[in-house]
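Final report, closing paragraph on structural work. Over the funding period we assembled a curated collection of sequence-structure pairs, and we close with a single example.
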Amino acid sequence: MASIRWTHPSVVRVVEKHSVRDPYAWIEHRARELALTAMERGWAGPPYDAFELAEALGVEVVARQDLDDARLVQAGGQPRIEFNPQRRPARIRFSIAHELGHYLFEDYAERTRYRDLEQRRDDDWQLEVLCNVAAAELLMPAGALPISEASDLDLIRLVDERQRFGVSMEALLRRVVRLTNGAAAIFAAARLDDAPTFRIDYTVPSRAWRPPVSPGDVISDSVLARCTAVGYADSAVESWNGAEVRVQAVGVPPYPGATFPRVVGILQPPSDGAPMDVGVKYVRGDAAAPRADGLAIIAHVVNDKALRWGGRGFVHSLMERYPDAALAFAARSTDERRLGAVHLHEAAKDTWIASMVAQAGYGPALSADQPRLRLHALRAALERVADAAERLGASVHMPLIGTGQGGTRWPKIRDLVLDELGSRHVPVTVYILPDAPMPEETSDAEQVALL
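Its predicted structure, as stored:
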């Protein structure tokens, strides 16, 4: 399969300076960390306010009706986003988020990020697609979408959902594919010149399936050619790289200077018997007594001030079953209790315990919109747990982490678990006490009713 040869100077600089192998993964990580930190400080949605995020970063935002869209400039030595206020609200949010994507590149000040003919390069699309990915991650962060919305992958329905959530089609599809249990992938493609052939810019697979195309592949004679305007959608069963796939596609705003729109959409196997991946399995019981065939890792959250395990509920059950693990945690040095760290201890022949340092202190939340759980620390800790699970060949078992004293709603945590563990096919079981209600799965989208 083909691959993208990265040539844009801004991207090449990142690749060389930070030893980046996959620019898509790099920009996803940068944008996710930015979003998680902002949510810890009270940033809420949907819709997520890109203006508020820019202000928090110290980026001035100024309306200018003489601009076609938006640009990132240097003004008095400070970053400033200028935008056209006459655009639709959803488009303005996307444009501001897209320019914040430019801000994540260290050389943004060396060249005004404006899309005019004098400054245009043939490979500008490489920078633009990465900033689109950043915008999508910012506009639909963890917890933004109810998991029920990812069960029906009909693109026409999802177009309506995009309008309801006030986000770009690209942002919605990227979140949907991470939540769905079904076999699917989303793609973004661009028409090559005026010919009905398309370059695949990127794909994002679900946990259950890998599509037969990769970034850089060229697709011809496809339903994609019917998406000749923004919002035009169509579908067909086609052969992509010799494999039969069901293609649903819709036109979205083009790259600057392009005549035809870009195309995003959903790929699926054509058969009804496509594989499924549940991602997170819920059971009634106690995570301190995991139901596992083979090695199990019990993952739980501790705070960065804790000198030892303590308290009631789950950790009390854990201490009773594994007192040696509690003693091992108490022997850790203070330096090892930084946010994002994981203390992994072999508690029994087939059981390991992962204490994830992801809560800042203990006691009541700092405020109603500032829980003690630190999402960026939890993401880093879950990544380390995934590394351990792959190394040991273990499944992961946990209570409803972060929802008690951590003070965070489960959907945000669920999405991080899916992003860091589910995407690597690590089996995850979440235990709910027999008399406890099932976790809330409506995400933050209940606020959408107010739009």
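Confidence is low (pLDDT under 50) at residues 445-451. The domain at 280-450 is CATH 3.40.220.10 (Leucine Aminopeptidase, subunit E; domain 1). We thank the funder for supporting this effort.
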